[in-house]
Each structure stands twice: as C-alpha cells, then as structure tokens.
Amino acid sequence: MLEVFAQCVYSLTKIESYLYIVSFVLLFLGQDIKGRNPFKLSVLQIHFEHLLSKGCFAMGSVITIPFTFALGLISVTPSDFFYWCKWILSYIYIELNKRFTTRRFDLYDKDALDDAAKLGFIVPAEEYVYEAPYDEAHLRRAEDEIICYGVNSKPERLLVNISRRSDQKADACVYLKLESGKTYRLQKTGHFQQSSTDKTVFSCGDLQISYTCPMRRWRIFYSGYLRETTENDEKGRMVYVKFALRWRASSDVFDATSDLSSYALADALAKASWKSAYPPIDKLKNALNFYIQSGVIHGTIDVEGEPEHEIYLFGQRLRNLGDVSSIKEAEIEHMLGYVYQHGAFVYMGKATIKNVVKDLCFGFAIQADTALKMLEKITITIIDSKDLKFMLSTFWKDRNYKLSGSLTSPLLQYSNKGGEIGTSIRKYGFYVNGKRGSGFYIGRKVSDSLKHKTPKIIAPEAPIPVSPLAVPFTNEICQLPDVTGGKGSSLGKLTKLSKNLRTFIVPSGIVVTTSAYKNFVTKGILAKIKLLEDVVYSGNSAEDVKEVCQSVCEEVERTEFPKGIREAIEISLRKTFGGQLQSRKFAVRSSATGEDTEQMSAAGQMDTLLGISGMNEILQAVKKCWASQFGFVAIQYKRRYGQCLNSPMAVVIQEMVPCDVAGVLFTCDPVTGNPTVMTITANYGLGETVVSGSEEPDTIELQRDPEDQLTLKSTTIGAKSRKIIAKDVEGITLEEVPENEKGNCCLSVEMIMRLGQLGIEVENYYRSHRDIEWGFWNNNLYLFQSRPVTSGTNETIFEIEHELDGPLRLENDYLTVSHIAEVMPGATTPLGMETFFKIFDIGFMEEHTEWLFPSGCPYFRCSWEAFYNHFMFRMTDMFRGQHSESIDYFSQATMIAFFGRILSDEELFQVCRDRFRDFKKEASLTEMAKLVLSAGNRIRKMEKTYANYRIPYDKFKTAKELFDYLMRSCSQLCDVFVGHVKVSQASTLWNMFIFTVLGKAKGGFDDDVYRDFSSLLTTSSDVISADVPAAIQSLAYYLSEAINAEDFKKMSIEEALNWLQRTPATVGKKFKQFMETHGHRCLREVSQQSRSRV
C-alpha cells in the first residue's frame, strides 16, 4: 500500500504532493487501528491503483484530492488525527536528519587506495576516540560504559560491565557460570578506577577491560575475589579467581543513533507527549547513544584450587555513552542473544522515554553470511510472574519470525539509596522459530532520584609558565611527572598523603627538575648522545654499544654545572633543611619521566647514591644520576620498552633515615598480581640490600579478604647475613648481622599489620597496586617510594598464542589449512598475517564467489581466518547448503582444488545446512567470467603504473619520520596487491571451470580427467610459475654436463651458490636466467621476514 502511495506522490507536483499526503493520512489513518473497519483501506487502495493505471495524476488530482480530503475529515477521530500528523512530521524530520547527518562509523571507502585509514589498512583516528574512556566533561553529564557478554550451549555464561563515574570511581559487575554449574559473581559500586596513563583501559578495582585494537579486539582481565555459589548454596563463599580473556569482533556495528527504523521511530515519537512543537530527536539520540557489535570471548579462567579452564563464548559488546541528564523518566531494555544451531546473533531493544518516545522497539540480527540486518515490524511483550518474566516477540527479517523466551529473577542489580532498581541483569533463554538460544537481559530505569550526583569540580590550576629548576616535595608542582619525573612526582603525592593520614613520614627532600637537566645538557653531550643512537640503532655489537655508553657517561660527569642550576639546587636545599644541610646525609636517585609508571618501572636500571653529604658531593651525585641513564643496562632496558634514549630526567635528593629495619611491600603478589595476597620483604638496616637483591630477606605474606581485613598467612626467614647501616662520619657501611638476629623475623606482628594497613591506604590513594619502599626507625614508619606494580596484568602465554585468532561462527565450526599450507607452512609472523589479510580483504571486498563471502566490513573476515598464526579457510562458508549425496560438479572440483579429494563428511554438510538453510548463493557467473577475461589487462596495467615505484627513504632524517610516512602510504601498492589477488582468483576459477567441464563430461573425476587436465595446463605459454619445474629440470641437466654430481652435492650452500654465479659454463647462464625470472619467489613469501631467492 505504501509503495503505491509513494509512486503516486512521486508523480505529482510539490503542492499536489502535500495535499495528497494530508488526504491520504486523513483517510488511511482514520480507519480503526485494530482493523475493525478495513473497508476504508480497500477503497483507498483501489482509488490509488486506478489513478496509477490511468496515469492521470495531474488531472485526476484536481478532482480526487478535495474528495479524499473531505472523506478523511469525516472518517478520522481526533486522537488518530493528532497521532498521524505527528507521525508524518516525525518521519519527515527523521529522514531529513538521516540525509544530512553522517553516520559516525561510515569511515571507510574501498576505492580510496591512496588513504590507508579509509581503506582499512590502519585504524582511523576516530575509532580510537569512540572506544577510549571519555574525559571528565563527558562523565559529568553522560554515561561511559562497556558491557561484554558471551554464552555457549554447555551452558557457560559470562557478563562483565564497567560504568565510569565523574568522581574517579566506577561501578562494575561480573557474572560467570562454568560448565560445572558453579557461578561466580561480583558487584562493586563506587570502587576506584585504577590510575593509568594508558588511555585504552576501563577499570574498576581489579577488573580491567581494554581495547588492543579499536572495534576489533579487546582484553578482559580480572584478578580478585568473586562470590562462588551453587544451586544448593546461594550465599556461597569468596574465592580467588583470575581470568584473561580476549574479545574479537565478528560483525559490523549497530549504532542506535543512526540505525533505527524510520517507521518504528516515527511511530514511537508520535505516541509520546512532546514538550516542544517538533520531534525531540536530539534528546532521543543523546539517551540512546550506544552501539553494539557481535563477537566471541576466548581465554582461560583460574579458580582457586581448580585446574585452569579454557572457555569459548559467543556474544556481543555494548558501548554506552548515553546522556540522560535532561530526561526525567526512562526505561530502556536490551535483550542480547545467540542461537546455537546456526550461529545467528539477535539483539532487540525497547525504550520508553517520557516526553520523547513510547514503546520504541528496534533490533538487528547477524545472519549466516555475517551480514548485519535490521529487524522490522518488531513487537515485544513482557509478561510478569512471580519468579520469571516471559517474553513474546515477533519481527520481520526476510520472513516472519516468532521469538518466545523467559527471563530469570535478577542475577545482579544496582540500587540507589531509596531502594529503587536502577539496572537489572537477568538470564535470557529463548527459541526463534524453534531454534534454541540464550543470552542476557539488561533493563535500566532512569529517574531523577537515580541519577548520579555530580561532585563539585575543582577548576584545574593554570599551567606553569616556567618550570622551576628545583622544587621541594611539599610544593604542589612536585606532583607533576613532566616536571619531576616518575619517582619525584610520586614522592610529592606521598608527602601530601602523609600530612592527611599522619600514620607515616616521608623524609624531606627536593627534586632537581627536568628543566634543570635540559639546561645542563651541552652541545658536546648531545653530539655524544647522537653517536650513541647511531651505534645502537645500526645493529652494532654489544661491546661497541658499551664503549659509546661509557663515553657518554664520562662526558656528562665532567661537564660543569651552570651557575643558575647550582644556585637553584642550593637555595632549595637550604630552604628545606636550614642550617642542618651540611650535617645531613642524603640519598640521590634518578627520576626519569618514563620511570615508575604502569608501563615501565625501570627499578634498579639507573644509579642510586647513598650517604651523600655536602654540596659538592650532592652536585656530583646529581650528575652521576643523569649520566646513569646512558649506562649499558639502562640503554638496553629502554630499547626493550621502546623508550627514547635521551629522556627528560629529574633527580631526587632525599634525606636519609638510619632505619633499624627496612624493605619493600607489594600490595599484591608481585609475580601473579593476585590482590588477595600482600607480600613484605625485610632486612635489618637500610632497604638497599632488599631492593638490590644482594641479601636474602625475610618474606612475609598477608592474606587479604574482600573487606580488606588482613591475617598473617606465612613467614619465611631469610639468611640476612649482612645489612647496610648509616653512620655519621663514614656515611654508609656494610656489616654482618649478629647470629642471634639471623634466625628471627626482623619485623614484629604489630609492625607487619601496621605496614599492611598502610599499604591498603596508599593503594586506594593511588588507585593501583603498589610497590612501596619503607623503613622503621625509632618506631616511626617511613615511606621512601611508591611505584605501580607492573607485572600483575601481563599477557598470559595462552593470550599470546591466540592473539591474532579470528572468531568462530559456531561451536562446531570446521576449519582447514587446505592447499595454503603448501605455500605457507607453519606459523606466519604477526606483521605478515596482518598485511596478507588486509590485502585479501580489499581484494574480495563486496565480491561473492562460490567459496568466499564478500569482506565488506573492516572489523572481521568472513570465510578465512587465522588460528595459531596459521591461515585457514572456514569450510562451512565454502559448502553452504550442500548435501553429501548431491554435490554438484563445480563443488567437487573446488574440493579437489583445495583438499585434493572429494569430501564425504555428512556431519560437516549437516552443519552447513543448519547454518545456511535459508541462504541462497549469490555468486554470479557473469562476474566470474568478467574476472577471468580481465586478468591479462589488469597485469599489464599494473606493470605500467608501478614500474618505477620506490620509497623515498633518503628524504627522511629520523626513523620516526620514515615510520610515519610508511603508515600513511602503506596502501599505495594496494592496487598491485589487489590485482595479484584478482588474477590468482581468475586463474583458480578458470582451472576449476575446465576441470568441472572435464569431470562432468566423464561423469566423475577419474585418472583420465586428471591426465587430460594436466595436458591442458602444459599448453599454457604465458604462466610464469608453470615454467618452474621445467626450468629446474633444465638446470639439472646442464649442471650434470658441467660438474660431477657427487662433487656438487658435497658443496655447502654458500659454495654451490658461489660456483653457479662464477662458472663460465652454460649452467651459469641458465642459473642467472632462472633467478631473474623466478628469484623474487620464496617459501612463506607473505612473511616480511622471509628472504627471496635473489
């Protein structure tokens, strides 16, 4: 009906169109919505069809428009009249909005071969912005939330959620169910977000969700307590659980701000009462500012006392940025599910927002061909009962679907102070047209009483116009890492905390800033550093690097201090210590800008000088610290972490405390990152023996429960043979520990507990697990340093092995290396995998073949994937809809080409039928023929276009400039690569056409068919690679003529190569010709590390 109406309106003039629309609405929408008076619709349809058949819109409109208009006025009711007027206005408004608003994920263009980001070779900058945690300004008015879930048929389930808040805290929940039937839960409200300079991480306490590649790969990590429950024990117990999981995209993006059905949206808008004269589209977009991707979750889970468990789940990821600050009441429901049998993902949402929309239903499904299709004509009905909610739904996607399911009582829910439910999470089981699936229901109610109270925002201080040369710990400037480095800024923060808590002391001191270092460095030092960079990056030997490192250190140490820096240090020290400066002893330590951070601790890599006294010694110690960053060990460490060799460096000058006992406290296990265990290492005297590892210390472990209550878990007495003590005259000295003290723990239980409780307070202040250097003297507790623990969240071996794996489509998916393993045996390098896949993705974009789906989405691949760094084809895509007893000849030829035999695995074909029962092949014979016939022209065009192509590497002064150029221009050769893919595909298709014809003529593929096919292949004269066997045979013949075969076999590879290159015999010329023609090829040639024959 609407199509007929659209054709009519399209043929009219503008004024006639407007009148006709109003007339149509009055008549059509005046009918009873429940269908009790279908006569009016029939009359109107006959009327339009009559006009359409006669083609008399212009003349007919003069008569029919007034008649229709009058008839509509008589038949319409007032409520329907206002509804449909709003519907039309909303629909026009929506369509105009879509027409003039760019969809935020429309970032790619397959024809933009000169733009690496638009082509998908590199990730567009916009996706980093969308996926990263948002700033405080956004958090004060809107959500910043990430939800990942997954299910399988065992049934195992996982849901993790982090919602960030503007008070530097976050809410989080975890629901995990394993095959054993045990469930594990976490619900944290108002817990700290971990402090991190890495802008890819969402965190709440011990839960971290971070992207490793925006829109494509995420990491889910948890290490901490979860509540274990069973069917017989709902209260359960707290157990330590650690999981490291990878989420991988397997679909395009559904964006709720732009992908909603115009008809459904207009209907929901028309049902609501607006506060303005126009549809509140902007409010709706703000409230429904979220997007969803389907994907898989794969990784390992460690539960205390149980073996490691591997898990593979199918689900979706929801990124919510909704702004409900201007919404008084709203109810938004998400139903996310996965169908086990054919691997479809189904999402349905329902939203009612006061004065905006009412009963807005929307959703999408991921089909067997991985295409994301919007659902239409959705109805969702939820029926409440005592313990369950029942859901009934119908929707249209190529045909009618019926979905029925049930929702359990809430697994997790967030409550406000008044007890009203804000967010409720339930298990969701359902059937779609008889196919079973499961997932999660997430319901959210928003009201004024539930909204976060925005904390008072303190305006940031104005930036420092000129950085000082030296600052005391008590100065606020000292907390800025760019000014005072990692260690210096941490001491500034610790000093401030000590004033607030008054439970520990930070020894006084100052920081010589990074500005002082920049002013100190002379042209002579810079020249030496440049030489060091040249030697390091040119692949010289370790001895050469050590020699230049020593030269730079000596140059720094013999350079005189500028007067301004010397005076600034002395003034700052005298203001801090007064007249006692000369009598105090100091520890002088490095404080580089990249040091003591989440990414790199650099502990022990640079010099620490103890027992320093007097200005001359202090100044010389400062220079030694600056020089130590160019020591061989420090340089190797920086190279490993990709750090600049000459980084801005501050120096800490801190008063020494003659400790009775000192050591290090880790607020989590330093090896595994387990936060339920705190570790203390201690020795008598100063803590340097513990930090440097020169003595075996006492080791104490504290058990930490979920409420941060501590109990003594274990005490291991170390050898503690020597200790370092501070003396007034000699500075520091190494002494033997008395025998009666060696066998005792150097800390009392009271001191241990005091340390543990302080460690928790410091951890909460920094919002990360900490590595704390401490000391006791005269029963006072001193803290000297606090750095983040960097080892606890490291990637597992399992993660590294599966980092580049693609997503499975089904639990019983079929994969094969097929004939690819012949040319690419074994694992391929990550760079080779990424490059190879991107080239083939572009080559097959938007193109259907018999064995591949088009890879029109840059976030995942369809028909082939990587697993364990091996290339594999997805067999269920290659033989979609096939039956083992009725395989067509072309499919048989495909099997022989890929596998060397005809497959007869009925289980494989059953999986193919389950997944593709309703799917039709879209491969076009015309397109295939066009591909084959155009191959030759494509090669000639590429040869002409890229004959003189080169990378202008000589124009760049630094490696960074060259790298940036390569990243920008990495798609310049895509046309060549795509041409190669197309030609290879054409060759394969042509061969299979011939093979199919021969097999069909013979009634099967027997030896005669193989012989005939081989004979046809040998007639080809322009296939270069086909010449390789004959060329090698020719080489062998001429080789036997020139040299005894046994003598040649005795040569090493280098000797044989040298002989072939130098011999005047015919074999030498033949070898040269062979290398010129085929020398660019090699085994595993898609890997950039593989060397060609030349």
TrEMBL record:
SUPFAM superfamilies: Glutathione synthetase ATP-binding domain-like. Residues 483-795 form the Pyruvate phosphate dikinase AMP/ATP-binding domain. Coiled coil: none annotated. It comes from the Eukaryota. The chain crosses the membrane at residues 12-30, 51-76. Signal peptide: none annotated. Keywords: Membrane, Pyruvate, Transmembrane, Transmembrane helix. GO terms for molecular function: ATP binding; kinase activity. InterPro entries: ATP_grasp_subdomain_1, PEP_Utilizing_Enz, PPDK_AMP/ATP-bd. Belongs to the PEP-utilizing enzyme family. This is Putative phosphoenolpyruvate synthase. It comes from Stegodyphus mimosarum.
